[in-house]
Amino acid sequence: MIVDGIKPGDELYxxxxxxxxxxxxxxxxxAEAIELANGHGYGLSSAIYTNDPRTAFTFANGISAGMTSxxxxxSGAEAHLPFGGNGKSGNGSRQSGIWVLDAVTQWQSLNxxxxxxxxKAQMDTTVLPADLDFRV
Length: 136
Prior knowledge:
alpha/beta; Aldehyde Dehydrogenase, Chain A, domain 2; two-stranded parallel sheet; 13% strand
């Protein structure tokens, strides 16, 4: 179902809906379109259809959606993106893509000296025997 004439203050503008319902509103310029698209607080994904790169980049820089497509549909979850929506959209999770590694892990570096003796910069002067058969 397509509902035309949606505007701020309408329930269909204020609530996130999932098909088979499409709300359609009108705008006068790209600034108003971005304002309308951001105004309800949802931001799962967005799309713009245009042949003008300046309009596409203006939209992409102004929209607050988690995913933005140019001349392509809002296809849904993309495994390589931190998908989950922005604002009130989606499930609130960003557990997709490589970014999840930083969210659930902790970086650690390991420096291993195979010389079998302490270096001059170290304060401890005890000589520890090297276990040359040890393998990781």
